[in-house]
Fold each of these.
Amino acid sequence: MKTYFEKPITSLNDAHIFFDNLAVDRVLFHPEDSPESIVDGFGLALFTPQECVALKQRISEVYLFDSDPCEYCLTLASNV
């Protein structure tokens, strides 16, 4: 599991760093999608069940600091 999957998000900056890391690792997904629903080009789950639990927690923390993280993610996705 990537270390940033487990690092609590405690600020807007942390939220942006979290999404930046997902983009760099080429696993950025829409924050409103469930991590369990994310698959690779072969239809295989991109994240393990344990990673999905951690990612759900991080996404819920993101919303404490950013009411619309989708906008930030779309900006990242367009720059990848």
Note: The longest helix spans residues 49-65.
Amino acid sequence: MPRSVGVWAAGLLAFLAGCGPPAAEPVRIGQVAPLTGPERTAGEHGRQGVQLAVAEAKAEGKTVAGRPLEVLHADSRGDPDAVGAETVRLLTINRVVALLAGPGTGVAGRLLRADESYGAPVVVAGELSDPSAWSAALSLGARPEERGRALARYAARDLKAVRAVVLTEAGNPVAAALATAFVREWPHGGAADLPALAGRAAKARPDLVVFAGVPAAFRAFRGEMASTGLHVPLAYGGEDAGPAAVSGGLEAGPDLYLATVWATEKLTARGQEFARRYEAEFHEAPDLYAAQAYDGACLLLGVLQRAQTLAGTPLRNELARTESFETVTGPLSWKDRRPRRPFFLVGVKGGQARVVQTVEPDGQ
């Protein structure tokens, strides 16, 4: 009898030891990014950036109203229709309280339209063609029209270009905004808008070609330009993707220029620490996709901590009240939801990228 009592007591102690207070349910954020398909590298780097931000928050003991943070990653698959479906699933089934859009071309607009009837706060890990149109969102990228104007000024003044051909991808609002701003800023009145065909561009005999489209199409076009015999500078005018995404694997070909917020040689002290941690964790150097997703997760966590509520309206209001944020690539502020931040003009020659000019926001 004593033995059976002892066994029962030991079992009770073991049961009680495992019956502490239940773990707090995590606060969930959703990220929609292309984890498969042609843009999977951008999506995977973005996911890794978010994972690093969440791991750092956990290590520092950061919580939201005493609850841990969790990020759910949804795969847009590079399919515009999938973006809306995944956004609704995250909001209705997974009950996320905020969303991170991207990286990935085309994610932001579709996600924001899907979120309109739900009103969850959104941070866009990239840029928007018209950020003031979305009351529940903040974007992290430099405005495309600013990048377009800066490219036009640099090409006319420093590259001494007189005649430019501008090729714009149909249906790409960021590329269209940049291309329009470039043409308006062009001082010589010789900018022509042609279909995106290398042969037709070469026949125009320009001394600068601006290609406003997605990075993959730009890389293919740069290769085609090399075969036309026209050796003039080429400017990338699509969604900001950083130097590696538009020049990777293309050591040969025309010199190219781009306007971007990502330049490893210009990282702030915080940015250098981010790069060190990212490389230690994932065994590769970070790129723009990783950095902006990391910044987006950090920004959303700060909003959640300040609001101390998970209700949609207070969270949206807290996001809207955010006036400034220190990204890993420099200071960022918003006025009427329009981002203002420094960015860089980068030249790539022989596969080597270097910053040729730092551009301060123009305030427009």
Note: Confidence is low (pLDDT under 50) at residues 1-18, 192-196.
